[in-house]
Amino acid sequence: MARPGLATRLYQGEANINIVGRRKTWFAIAIAIVVISLGSILIRGFELGIEFAGGTEFTVPATSNSQTLTQEQAGDAVAKAVHSVDPDAQIGAAQQVGTGADSFFRVRTPALSTAETEEAKTALVADLGVPADQISDNQVSAAWGGAVTEKAVLGLVVFLVLVCAYLIIRFEYRMAIAALASLLLDLVLTAGVYSLVGFEVTPSTVIGFLTIMGYSLYDVVVVFDKVQENTRGLTAGTSRTYAEATNLAVNQTLMRSLNTGLVALLPVGGLLFIGAGLFGAGTLKDLGLVLFVGMGFGVISSILFAAPVLSALKDREPKIKAHNARVLARRASRSDDVAPRAERTRPANATDSDEVPAFAGTTPRPGARPVAKRNTTNRGGGAGNRPGKRR
């Protein structure tokens, strides 16, 4: 018979991967990554886009009058023009939008006055030798970004309240705490990666953060539903502790979580690496990065963090604590009873050189028939051995 696959063995508990039992290791790794992420956020901060920081945005065509500009040339040209009116201005990197003849570059600068903008635009036209109508500018106020942030925070609070209410009604409050802890870990790690990489925070980034919250909780709810199924009536028996039943649930949903995560990450990876990297669609990288990192961390945290947190919380419950103690006590008594019979029946003064005949003192199996002694007389032979007639 062919050996069952890994998914089948995980579901049946035959290929048991000890995930919950190593929860201290996962907690230590999570704490270390959170410290790194928070350190980057506090020290480096975020690269706020023009929608949040405010400023002026210049749009330069990539191709004009048979002249093709590179991303670096467009950024240098705008920087030179803006520095002619504001030498201390910090110029952002040029972002290419579109491909081919219709592509153009966006370069963001600090907020300039109307007179400074026109002067910089005139210098840019003279430097690149392009018509003035092909170069545009856009003034963005930081108040718009503040309004977006306020709406996003309000949506986040409402979302968390509704999720907590659902998880408490559907499961219990400990599962709600574990799910929210996993979600917050996912958000902090994603924000830390965003800070370390230095991508601009745009409205697309905010949309991505709101999206990964739902995805992260989706996988956690799937795992917790299986945990609830495995732990229903658990305290009535003494076969598994709560941590072991939780670990079995994680194993049973492991392949499903990995397959679902892989299917979700493939199009997002295409959006990030192909759309933004290969085709130069800079507007896609903000959304692609936050989705890719957030979904990846969401799958990992639902497996390695949410279930261990739930197990740690439940192990503090008096009923579960007493049940775990009964299970461990029964196992300890079983281990004491499985000593080899030869060791239990061996005389106290016996030595290793004493030999015991094979099968000596073996107890017959119940229902076994006794073996009759073999007749040593010659049954085949002489006339004296045959029963004679009475004379």
UniProtKB/TrEMBL annotation:
Membrane-spanning segments: 26-46, 152-169, 176-199, 205-224, 262-281, 287-313
This protein's source sits in the domain of life called: Bacteria
Please give the biological process terms from Gene Ontology that the record holds.
Answer: intracellular protein transmembrane transport; protein targeting; protein transport by the Sec complex
Cellular component terms, GO, for this chain's entry? Answer: plasma membrane
| Gene3D superfamilies (alphabetical) | Multidrug efflux transporter AcrB transmembrane domain
Stretches assigned to the Protein export membrane protein SecD/SecF C-terminal domain? 125-314
Give the span(s) annotated as Disordered.
324-391
One MF term in the entry's GO annotations: protein-transporting ATPase activity
Q: Basic and acidic residues compositional bias: what residue ranges?
A: 333-346
This protein's UniProt keywords: Cell membrane, Membrane, Protein transport, Translocation, Transmembrane, Transmembrane helix, Transport
Q: Name one Pfam family in it.
A: SecD_SecF_C
Instruction: Please give the subunit comment from the record.
Output: Forms a complex with SecD. Part of the essential Sec protein translocation apparatus which comprises SecA, SecYEG and auxiliary proteins SecDF. Other proteins may also be involved.
Q: Which PANTHER family does the record associate with it?
A: PROTEIN TRANSLOCASE SUBUNIT SECF, PROTEIN-EXPORT MEMBRANE PROTEIN SEC
**What is the recorded name of this protein?**
Protein-export membrane protein SecF
- Gene name of the record: secF
